[in-house]
Amino acid sequence: MPDNAMLRGRAAPLPTPNLDTDQIMPKQFLRGIDKSGLAEGLLYDLRHDGSGQIRPDFVLNQPAFRGVDMLLAGPNFGCGSSREHAVWGLQQFGFKAIMASSFAEIFYSNALGNGLLLATVSESDALAFLQESRLANGPLALTIDVQARSVSSAGHSALFSLSDRHQRMFLKGLDALGMSLTSLPAIEQFAQAHWQRSPWLCDVAAKTRGRLDEALR
Q: What is the domain range of residue 126?
């Protein structure tokens, strides 16, 4: 079994519906030219008040939830802009999986492409896990079986949806490019057959540029 086929962690409840990427990673933290330093910005306006002071009542600021690595999120998590920094910030903060009844489409693709597992469960299952978390009055221990596409706690279990492609990507630790390269022989075979059928299209951009350069000399 691959190392990442079974995820075990502690989840914090964040049931806010329609939590968008502008809230997950505010714009003032998008100034860097690389992926580093984004943990500070994660959910900044929820974790801090208007003067920049920590909100002690926010779940991730509470001592009991320190070090959690999973989220029980509300529906349509990750809506809004397509900024990939939201995914990077979640990972840098320490999250490895998020469970919700629905996710925004672009955020979903960004997350799975970066190895952040999103488990889409039914709304009733999401509510059951959230209720169990409230009763626990602390982090909820979760086990996610990626191969079986199931998630379980001490008091509830559910199946989650995950496409075959995204499942393979996660289990093999591949991003979208890496997944495409697993089909490289088939890609090369298709390309060769394509050029044989339509040789006038082969390297047409380079040939056109060469003719233009020659004409300008």
A: 3-174
